[in-house]
Amino acid sequence: MYYTKMLIPTLKESPADAEVVSHKLMIRAGMIRQLAAGIYSTLPMGLRVLRKVEEIIREEMDRIGGQEVFLPSIQPAELWIESGRWKFYGKELLRIKDRHERDFCYGPTHEEVITDIVRRDVRSYRQLPLLLYQIQTKFRDEVRPRFGIMRGREFIMKDAYSFHVNEESTQETYSKMAEAYSRVFERCGLDFKMVEADSGTIGGSSSHEFVVLADSGEDRVGFCDSCDYASNLEKAEIRPPVPASETPVKENLKEVSTPGKKTVEDVTAFLKIAPERLIKTIVFESDRGLVVGLVRGDRDINPIKMKNLVGCEWLHPAAEDLIAKETKLPCGYLGPVGMKLKIYADAEVPLMSNSVTGANKPDTHLIGVQMDRDFSVEKVGDLREVREGDPCAKCDAGTYRVKRGIEVGHIFILGNKYSSAMKATYLDGQGKENPMVMGCYGIGVGRTAAAAIEQNHDEKGIIWPLPLAPFKVIILPVNFANEEVRNASETAYQTLVELGMDPLLDDRSDRLGVKFKDAELLGIPLQIIIGPKNLTAGKVEIKMRKTGESQLLAFPDGLADIPEMLSCS
Questions:
Q1: For the whole model, what pTM was predicted?
Q2: Would you call 104 helix, strand, or coil by DSSP?
Q3: CATH: 1.10.3720.10, 3.30.70.1130, 3.30.930.10, 2.60.40.1910. Which one for 47-237+402-453?
Q4: Which of 3, 123, 248, 269 has the most crowded Cβ, counting Cβ within 10 A?
């Protein structure tokens, strides 16, 4: 491809609203342009990269027996009502009406649609297992779209769904999919981890995320420094606390005045106690109403763990005005003693003695608080957010290290959540009807490309891993108007095309410095600089984008060595 025949609108400066490197560089490299908040047009250079990711995904899905389909993006509400998700999915689900006032949604995922297809056309156990996948556009109405295509509202996703006769068969496909995902991300040149994760709104019994390690990542991942355990912090378990060797003398419950002291820091400083002695009381709003979570004062509650302990469909911290309206209690002075809401406590709370809590009265706290004596709870469980240095739950010796990462893939064992609700059944060998067991598997195509940039860049621009590069080689003539240089450049171009190197020839009339800057920005792995001086000596200069190393190569015969040079880079 000739540069002047392509739309490559590079920019010198990053847009003001771009927060992460991948967003800045994809805009500057002319790969994407914003149409609306969280909605981007993909330009030719960007689309070439996405197609490279898609090609790798297709090869690995086909390798494990996947069959590609293409499903409608607009889905009827009836299917979502049938599965039970129409009400509970939340505002991320873009709901629309057609001209007949019938309800539809723009699909954020396709469990309902694929289950509807399979229940219509698969009846016998002899047709199972079945693995179907697609690469298609999704839409999720994110509250705060950001980071370019990494957290957009409209995005390209590979989603796959498997159908089975039992859990054992599902687990076999799940394991094959985990291996296939690992190969996908290895082939994309990414440094990643497979970690335990929460299933979220998709549902199901277990799931794992594939996380690309990057400081710009929204996810935080805990890794044990002793064993192989790794988990998203939403899911990461902490070793149960050990009771104190000596039981302290229990104090009597007593009110104390704490005028204007609402925060953990203010209360503990005022009472001259450590934060570990305070029980933090947090109210959450859920589909089951308001509920209360308790955690030690120096800790934070993980909302996902709280949701799972409560057993609700959705949960988030309640607004102060809602708390005041529903409980008639003063925010900043809440506590479990006398609390009318259902209470859930972290595992450290029962081991705390002579604790401090809010008194549910303005400017007042309680001291000498003891769980079971002064208040009771619905359930006790692991509610704490994991932090650096916490003990690993899977081994005796390890502690957690915490790093940031970008989720690029997620696999789930769904069980029969959707098949039971939507009556997707099969007949076994005895003619008995049974619900199918399902698995679900997603990869963010654009997110994978963005994550590759986050891991592979410098101050000059992108450094594409070879498998994802929009072009493998860029030819940079010193002066394309010079006949000798132009003829040599076109010879190099045709030779590289025949070698399968997918070259880009920069035939612009701009100065070489401009071409160099754009080549560095675009991140194409190998540059060939063609000038009259080196041609006189029968040479051209080649430069590797990743290392900056350059050398002279015999021209034109030396071009035949470029495929091997790139494969070894």
A1: 0.84
A2: strand
A3: 3.30.930.10
A4: 3
